[in-house]
Write a structure and sequence with these properties.
two-stranded antiparallel sheet, ten-stranded mixed β-sheet, Rossmann fold, Isopropylmalate Dehydrogenase, binds nicotinamide-adenine-dinucleotide, 3 domains, alpha/beta
């Protein structure tokens, strides 16, 4: 049976790592009908939008997608296509395993964490008011009247909504993931000492959900303390569940623990669809250079194979990647001891993985 899968190559270095990943997935022997869909800056002129409806339709139809990163302008311009995609498809849980493989250049060994990030609300809701707009001024006046707080008139405001339902489902997902994958503990991460309304609600909901999973240990950490603990004693943690913004930041911290962004995969899971993508962005400064590490996207492919129920193929691909890392020969510049050491290019890594898969 062939799986219909949407493939979004992305932009910047996205197309290079997507091609490499597509080749290794095909080499696993699992059959795919790739439904290639373009999104982002590349299609803005053609379709008048960075997220054309046919991309969403394709994912809704196929229910599974794998994507390369897409660039988002900083501070101005269009909103993130990645965030829009997660919201449009209600991909509420972003799962990012952080695991060290033998041979990676990391200060740590034996890291095995799973980060579950809420993906649809929090400061990523996209409800923002720019400085000096009538709406910002009105909101500042409204807040003064209803809350008593004085906000400086030259302020911009971003809204942070966190709901019981949104928190409940992501925490429940984290516990169910823990149970299904033989994990022992879930830690809820928050800043409820300061943001008592929003993070307080996230924590209270997590505590409530935890009661339904007596077989899984539960605790919580304040996010700043969590950062320090992860650097000092990561072995004490197992599955972390976090609101959107903290999840984004801690995901990169997790990537740093396991040897860098070039190795950190991700899965955006919803009730009706799943989109697999690396944690890293489009690294546009390296675009077209056949240079960056495709392994984060290839490991995302492993997650996709497992999601499709192709666990044996997932295991073989993970082992092939682990072997290539351990041998240290066909790895990209970011995995070499010195940036100037000769390194494999993106497509050579794919060639080496394919050769491993072939036995
Ligand atoms: P980035 O992840 O693209 O790159 C940060 C740095 O990490 C790079 O300069 C590079 O040194 C290193 N790096 C990243 N991926 C690597 C890889 N596969 N191999 C080797 N080194 C790698 O982050 P950024 O520079 O903050 O963002 C660039 C663009 O990507 C922005 O427009 C941002 O909005 C976007 N972005 C997209 C996604 C997504 O598509 N899901 C995620 C994060 C950022």
């Amino acid at each position: 049976m062939a799986y219909d899968v949407t493939l979004i190559p992305g932009d910047g270095t996205g197309p290079e790592i997507s091609k490499a990943t597509q080749r290794v997935l095909d080499a696993t022997g699992v059959q795919f009908n790739w439904d290639v869909q373009e999104a982002g800056l590349a299609v803005l002129e053609k379709y008048g939008t960075v997220l054309p409806e046919q991309v969403l339709d394709s994912i809704r139809r196929n229910k599974v997608a794998i994507k390369g990163p897409l660039t988002t302008p900083v501070g101005k311009g269009f909103r993130s296509v990645n965030v829009a995609l997660r919201k449009a498809l209600d991909l509420y849980a972003c799962v990012r395993p952080c695991k060290t493989y033998k041979g990676v250049r990391s200060r740590y060994t034996d890291i095995d964490l799973v980060i579950v990030r809420e993906n649809t609300e929090d400061l990523y809701a996209g409800v923002e008011f720019f400085k000096d707009t009538p709406e910002a001024q009105e909101l500042i006046a409204w807040i003064k009247e209803h809350n008593g707080a004085t906000i400086r008139p030259d302020s911009a405001i971003s809204i942070k909504p966190i709901s019981t339902s949104g928190s409940d489902r992501v925490v429940r997902y984290a516990f169910e993931y823990a149970r299904a994958n033989g994990r022992r503990k879930v830690t809820a991460v928050h800043k409820a000492n300061i943001m008592k309304a929003t993070d307080g609600l996230f924590l209270a909901t997590a505590q409530e959900v935890a009661k339904g999973f007596p077989d899984i240990e539960f605790d919580d950490r304040i996010v700043d303390n969590m950062c320090m603990q992860l650097v000092q004693k990561p072995e004490q943690y197992d599955v972390l569940v976090l609101p959107n913004l903290y999840g984004d930041i801690i995901s990169d911290l997790g990537a740093g623990l396991i040897g860098g962004l070039g190795l950190a995969p991700g899965a955006n899971i919803g009730t009706y669809a799943a989109v697999f993508e690396p944690t890293h962005g489009s690294a546009p400064q390296y675009a077209g250079q056949n240079k960056i590490n495709p392994m984060a996207m290839m490991f995302s492919g492993v997650l996709m194979l497992n999601y499709l129920g192709e666990r044996e193929a997932g295991k073989r691909l993970e082992q092939a990647l682990a072997d290539i890392i351990a041998e240290g020969k066909y790895v990209t510049y970011d995995m070499k001891p010195n940036r100037t050491d000769p390194a494999a290019g993106t497509s050579e890594v794919a060639d080496a993985v394919i050769a491993k898969l072939a036995g």
